[in-house]
């Protein structure tokens, strides 16, 4: 289950993708979805409700998911709609992937780049300021990050488990790539050496982060997929990704726990809160 709390636009699309990601990173195929939609008193229109459910239905069709139930109500004390999703999926028991499965010697592979999700949210919440600074075309491009390159990792996660030996997967969300790596490290009881120069930071993301004084490593990062897998399989998976038009790179190596998590010559930064909270 996952709630959508920062976003006020395209809630229906967002809630499907975020919850489907969590299922896919376990090696499973997302299949059934339920939603609890809480709507603000005095601000809710029939059109708003129709928009949210049409977005969710469209996203479900694209991923072959059944929208099979849930609950909708007007709720006292809210200033914006909030949607909480529950996604269920299926996987053969012996093919289940856990974030606790990374092994010493594994490569760490990252798809697409960072921080797709955070950049898109900032575009929607700070659009006027960004348009004034960078122009209308720039703003439209980063608003569309939600769809292109997109916040879904379902395709690349399922391609990975169907093609190579995968030890662990994780989609970095709140707290960004850095927090996602710390979470995998803790779950697997291992350390990591991260190659800073190999991390793909989308250029528009870098510009937005510089504008607001944010570190992209700690910015909401849905749309990227972290995978730990044997070195031979990592090169094979990158080749499969290239054939499918998916960007990817090996950004690190799994090492013994006592080595900790390093980035370049220092320690990988840890973020108590997502960087996006600095602008809200």
Walk me through this protein's architecture.
- This protein has 280 residues and is α+β, with helices and mostly antiparallel strands.
- It is built from 9 helices and 11 strands.
- Helix 1 (11-24) packs parallel to helix 6, helix 3 (116-125) packs across helix 8 (203-212) and helix 6 crosses helix 9 (231-243).
- It starts with a strand and ends in a 13-residue tail after the last strand.
Layout of helices and strands:
Elements lengths: L1 E3 L6 H14 L4 E12 L5 H18 L2 E10 L6 E9 L16 E5 L4 H10 L1 H8 L1 H8 L10 H10 L4 E3 L5 H13 L2 E4 L8 H10 L13 E4 L1 H13 L4 E8 L5 E3 L2 E2 L13
Parallel strand pairs: 2-3, 7-10
Antiparallel strand pairs: 1-4, 2-4, 5-8, 5-9, 6-8, 7-9, 10-11
Helix pairs in contact: 1-2, 1-6, 3-5, 3-8, 4-5, 6-9
Features of this protein?
37% helix; globular; 7-stranded mixed β-sheet; 280 residues; 9 helices; 4-stranded mixed β-sheet
Strand content: 15-25%
Structural class label: alpha+beta
Continuous helix count: 9
The shape is globular
Radius of gyration equals: 19 Å
Largest sheet descriptor = 7 strands, mixed
Helix and strand pattern: EHEHEEEHHHHEHEHEHEEE
Question: Could you tell me how far the N terminus lies from the C terminus, measured between alpha carbons in angstroms?
Answer: 24 Å
Low-confidence spans: pLDDT under 50, at least 5 residues? none
Query: Largest beta sheet: what is the strand line-up?
Result: 6-8-5-9-7-10-11
> What share of residues is helical?
25-40%
Q: How many runs of DSSP E, i.e. beta strands?
A: 11
Mean of all residue-level pLDDT scores: 95
């Amino acid at each position: 289950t996952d709630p959508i709390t920062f976003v006020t636009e395209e809630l229906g699309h967002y809630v499907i993708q975020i919850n489907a990601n969590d299922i896919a990173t376990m090696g499973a195929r997302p299949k059934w979805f339920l939603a609890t939609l809480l709507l603000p008193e005095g601000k809710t229109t029939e059109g708003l409700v129709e928009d949210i459910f049409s977005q969710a239905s469209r996203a479900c069709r694209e991923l072959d998911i059944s929208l099979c139930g849930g609950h909708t109500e007007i709720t006292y004390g809210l200033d914006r709609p909030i949607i909480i999703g529950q996604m269920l999926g299926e996987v053969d028991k012996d093919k289940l992937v856990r974030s606790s499965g990374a092994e010493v010697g594994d490569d760490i592979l990252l798809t697409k780049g960072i921080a797709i999700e955070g950049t898109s949210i900032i575009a929607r919440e700070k659009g006027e300021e960004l348009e004034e600074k960078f122009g209308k075309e720039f703003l439209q491009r980063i608003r569309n990050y939600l769809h292109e390159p997109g916040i879904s990792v379902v395709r690349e996660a399922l391609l990975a488990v169907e093609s190579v030996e995968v030890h662990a997967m994780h989609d970095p969300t709140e707290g960004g790539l850095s927090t996602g790596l710390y979470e995998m490290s803790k779950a697997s009881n291992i350390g990591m050496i991260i190659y800073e120069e190999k991390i793909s930071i989308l250029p528009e993301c870098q510009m937005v982060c510089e504008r607001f004084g944010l570190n992209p490593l700690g910015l909401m990062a849905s749309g990227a997929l972290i995978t730990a897998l044997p070195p031979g399989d990592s090169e094979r998976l990158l080749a499969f990704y290239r054939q499918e038009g998916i960007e990817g790179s090996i950004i690190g190596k799994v090492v013994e726990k006592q080595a900790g998590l390093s980035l370049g010559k220092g320690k990988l930064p840890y973020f108590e809160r997502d960087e996006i909270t600095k602008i809200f």
